[in-house]
Amino acid sequence: MYKEFQDTTVLFGANAPFVEELYEHYLADPDSVPEEWRHYFDALRQGPGPEQEVPHAPIRAAFEQMAKMGPVRFVKAGTDDGQRQVGVLQLINAHRFLGHRVADIDPLKMHEKPRVEELEPATYGLTEADLNREFNVGSFRGLEKQTATLREILEALRQTYCRTVGVEYMYLTDTAQKRWLQARFEPVHGKARLTVDQQKRILERLTAAETLERYLHTRYVGQKRFSLEGGESAIVALDEAIRVAGRHGAQEVVIGMAHRGRLNVLVNVLGKPPAMLFAEFEGKKAEELTAGDVKYHMGFSSDVLTPGGPVHLSLMFNPSHLEIVNPVVLGSAYARQQRRDPAEAKDQVVPIIIHGDAAVAGQGVNQEVLNFAQTRGYGVGGAVHIVINNQIGFTTSDPRDLRSSTYCTDIFKMAEAPIFHVNGDDPEAVAFVMQLAMEFRKEFKKDVVVDIVCFRKLGHNEQDEPAVTQPLMYRRVRQHPGTRKLYADHLVQSGVIAPDDPERYIQEYREHLDRGELLYNPVVANVVRKHAIDWTPFIRQEYTDECDTSIPAAEYRRLAERLTTIPEGFELHPRVQKIIEDRRAMGRGEMPADWGFGENLAYASLVAQGFGVRLSGEDVGRGTFFHRHAVLHDQKRERRDEGTYVPLQNIQEGQAPFYVYDSTLSEEGTLGFDYGYAITEPNQLTIWEAQFGDFANGAQVVIDQFIASGEAKWGRLCGLTLLLPHGYEGQGPEHSSARIERYLQLSAERNWQVCVPTNAAQIFHLLRRQMLRRVRKPLVVFTPKSLLRLKEAASPMEDFLRGGYRTVIGEVEELAPKKVKRVLLCQGKIYYELLAYRREKGIDDTAIIRLEQLYPFPAEALNAALKPFAQAKELVWVQEEPRNQGVWYWLLSRQHLKNELGRGRRLLLVSRPASSSPAVGYLAKHVAQQKAVIEGAFGPILAD
């Protein structure tokens, strides 16, 4: 078999990894490969032998060239010894690639190990007679000598790659990363070397994890808590991760997880007092929140002591939507990192994300997060991922239906993250790979994964009976003594602890729980954190719409000059050059300011006043509709740092930062990230812009479960701003409506602001208001498309120099109030179409009022705008959205115009007919519908 392989195999395709690995052996020790191969590699390198690390690219290129010339046979070794030596190196390589397939990582022993032929010596022509022959071990570090018998090599390989840790890493393209892992994993045969104190700590962690779960199970019978039983080693992993992080200089660890095991993590890792937890179980905690949340969704923060000093831990709150918390964790970590020296930031703030096995494979947000993990505006230097793999998924899953990949962690390979699969019944191995994972992340600033293969002792929740659907699995679960018991017995047999110590540990922990105390209290009080943010100025602030956001004329001109100053020799595109020239005229007051100028002026004024700005989303630098141009591109140079210029980063010395990032093609992941950023950084205006407003559909879970309700459920303040382009302009169902009705349906308890500005000065004042007030509420802005260049939507210089955001804009033309019979109420761009029609037809008995803020509803401002037209008996709401969408039904249900209707007025509607689609796709039909709405607003109205 080997001879056929040697004679016929070409040097490309599936054999490329072997050839590259053979080259690795050559680099480590030229004498470890057969003489013919050594000469061949020497020739490719044009040198007598490797004196230092060299790129693999020339080797790959040479093989690619051979492949183009047709089938190329392997260079034959001249002797049988040479052939056997190559076989040994292939065997080593195979264990590095595939050893995990036969590793002992399942504590329930549910699945028969596959036979992997590549791990058998016979596959490479090696026989029993070769077991006592000596071979060069190449780059394998599992033996303390360069040559060893095949028996010794095989035993070392199996101990290293096939025991309770299965590691996947050979797909990494960076040789240095692979060698780093080999240097730390192979010499110890993938096994921890722990001190007695470390072993005792592991047992203490397991005891705490198991005892808390059993205590809650008996004290609060039948209550949901999503028990960690069967996966207690996760507490060992998290404890070790935090200690290693602290030892390596981390100051903060941001943790995200779903609900399984959360109560255990809160108490046994973050040090939440058990008495506080019990109060939540018993409903005794006096809540100040308007809604609150279940106990297994709550967050918590504390400072714990590690070998490197205190580390601040933040466990993020999260809904039951499982993995959706992951981008929130990363956004929060990123914001914390930006407060620090860039050279140390990623070491000082470490994100740790805990997954379930079904969720990590099944939830698409993980792909989005991994895709932007190394990008400029979202990279946190890698997250450490821990998978609590209970091998069952969630409720009644059949393993055959859980996923299509071999492992639940296969998605991480897209980010070239090494993956450690570890048997949860070997807590020492769990601690060992956790240490490796933390050190790898520190060294290479990349994601890394620890997959703890364990089981779930109880059902999906404590009221389920899992044996109904998994009878054989749960027969084994019932027979399993528990990880703590197995490890305690091991330490007793090893003489590490006395026979009665395990029970004593349990009893001591229970006694402390009875008193509502922690036995192993890691919490450190009164830690002064240099980079902490004080949210006190924003807490319990009375909401107000009022805020003077004007700027002086001199400042207007100065900012405009800075926004339009371009470096010498920087060549703009002709269209952009015209925009900059127009903005110079706007800055001098020679022409009205358009939307793009008003928006950029808002950012410039904020950074000049000390408020940072972060703007992210698809195409935000230029702007999807070619209006923003916050990032300018030199037409003589490609898009690199030297080929771009950001005026907003050059407003003045000592200004606050302005960040602008074109995101990956992602909504859910990037919006979740920006939400996490905004709840961590109140002193920056954080903006996420959808390419089209209806693209926010892809992030609806973030909007529903975090942005709209985060303050009511968790008391978390957030000033995140959403820019959602909206407007019916014939672009079809997916490029028209940002679904205003959805945001209004979620509006209550003054949870956020929903605004529809219609001119340049309005967006200027609105963005400034978001930061200048001491209020931190999310802001949802329905921004225009056609108005970006509409002359009527431009604003004179004077509008920037006085007042603030106008929640309602009343009639702007001179109408005789007594002649007005009808008042049109509207929002958005349709106002300008109504105004144009009225002017064209010379209509003077119909007033038009714009609602620029829909929520909180500006009742007083609207009443003031309506007051001059008290005799008008018809109030008509005009919207371009279909009847069953937009503002209409919300306006009726909230009775916002109740007072006005009580004066004998009728409230009527003009809109598109009700529709299951937000807009038509045929341009001709759109034009006809839009025409009917505009004409209908001024014609006879038959019904409301």
Briefly characterize the structure.
The chain is α/β, with parallel strands linked by helices and 944 residues long. It is built from 32 helices and 24 strands.
Task: Give the tags.
single chain; 944 residues; alpha/beta; Rossmann fold; seven-stranded mixed sheet; 32 helices; disordered N terminus; EC 1.2.4.2; 2-oxogl_dehyd_N; THDP-binding; thiamine pyrophosphate binding; 2-oxoglutarate dehydrogenase E1 component
Structure description:
With 944 residues, this protein is an alpha/beta fold. The chain folds into four domains: 2-177, no CATH class; 196-514, Rossmann fold (3-Layer(aba) Sandwich), CATH 3.40.50.970; 553-800, 3-Layer(aba) Sandwich (Rossmann fold), CATH 3.40.50.12470; 808-938, Rossmann fold (3-Layer(aba) Sandwich). The protein contains 32 helices and 24 strands. The strands form five sheets. Strands 3-9-10-8-7-4-6-5 form an eight-stranded mixed beta sheet. Strands 14-11-15-16-18-17-22 form a seven-stranded mixed beta sheet, sandwiched between helices. It has a five-stranded mixed beta sheet with strand order 19-21-20-23-24, sandwiched between helices. Helix 16 links the parallel strand 9 and strand 10 (448-453). Helix 20 runs antiparallel to helix 21, helix 23 (668-678) packs parallel to helix 24 (700-707) and helix 28 (830-841) packs across helix 32. It starts with a helix and ends in a 6-residue tail after the last helix. Residues 1-14 and 66-78 have low confidence and may be disordered.
